[in-house]
Amino acid sequence: MRRLTIIFAAFALAATPALASADGQMPQMDFANPLTGAQVVWMAIIMIVLYFLLSRWALPQLGSVIEDRQNRIKSDLDVARHAKAEAEHAVAELNLAIRNAREESQAAIAEAVGTAKARARAQSDRLNQRLDAELARAEAEIDATRKQAMAALAPVAREVASSLILRLAGKPADPERLDRALASAQG
């Protein structure tokens, strides 16, 4: 690439003297030549026509395209902002609905737990009452059976004590004294 640039520069330098006019000036700058004046006039006419074509026809069309593009971008941005606002509003509503549903479910769970605890407490109270009644009945039966057993043991104890006293002392026991001793031992 660098060699190619050097070759073109060398060719341009070599061709420059060939393009020069006889007096050493470039032909484009030779205003003594009648063609140069005509070229300058035509160049001015072409530039003026080109200016008017660009300023009256091409640039307004280009400007309207740019303006349409800016308006479309602006409207797209407005639509995007509106959609973003709606999305943020929808997210806020969704979060609120989730929070409300969570609170309602927690309240329902707490109510169900409270109801279950109350039901369990009531059932436990009923069972405790029934067990207390059965325990009281069993204690009464045990007490009655113990009294009955003690009452049944009294004649046997009297008989055994009387025979022991007779064997040990060699004489029969005093019935009143024996009754008092048995009563104090029972009671």
UniProtKB/TrEMBL annotation:
Residues 1-20 form the signal peptide. The keyword Protein biosynthesis does not apply. The chain crosses the membrane at residues 36-54. It is found in: Cell membrane; Endomembrane system. InterPro entries: ATP_synth_b/b'su_bac/chlpt, ATP_synthase_B_chain. Keywords: ATP synthesis, Cell membrane, CF(0), Coiled coil, Hydrogen ion transport, Ion transport, Membrane, Signal, Transmembrane, Transmembrane helix, Transport. The keyword Metal-binding does not apply. CDD domains: ATP-synt_Fo_b. Its main location: membrane. Residues 84-148 form a coiled coil. It is a single-pass membrane protein. It comes from the Bacteria. Belongs to the ATPase B chain family. Component of the F(0) channel, it forms part of the peripheral stalk, linking F(1) to F(0). The b'-subunit is a diverged and duplicated form of b found in plants and photosynthetic bacteria. F(1)F(0) ATP synthase produces ATP from ADP in the presence of a proton or sodium gradient. F-type ATPases consist of two structural domains, F(1) containing the extramembraneous catalytic core and F(0) containing the membrane proton channel, linked together by a central stalk and a peripheral stalk. During catalysis, ATP synthesis in the catalytic domain of F(1) is coupled via a rotary mechanism of the central stalk subunits to proton translocation. F-type ATPases have 2 components, F(1) - the catalytic core - and F(0) - the membrane proton channel. F(1) has five subunits: alpha(3), beta(3), gamma(1), delta(1), epsilon(1). F(0) has three main subunits: a(1), b(2) and c(10-14). The alpha and beta chains form an alternating ring which encloses part of the gamma chain. F(1) is attached to F(0) by a central stalk formed by the gamma and epsilon chains, while a peripheral stalk is formed by the delta and b chains. This is ATP synthase subunit b. The gene is atpF.
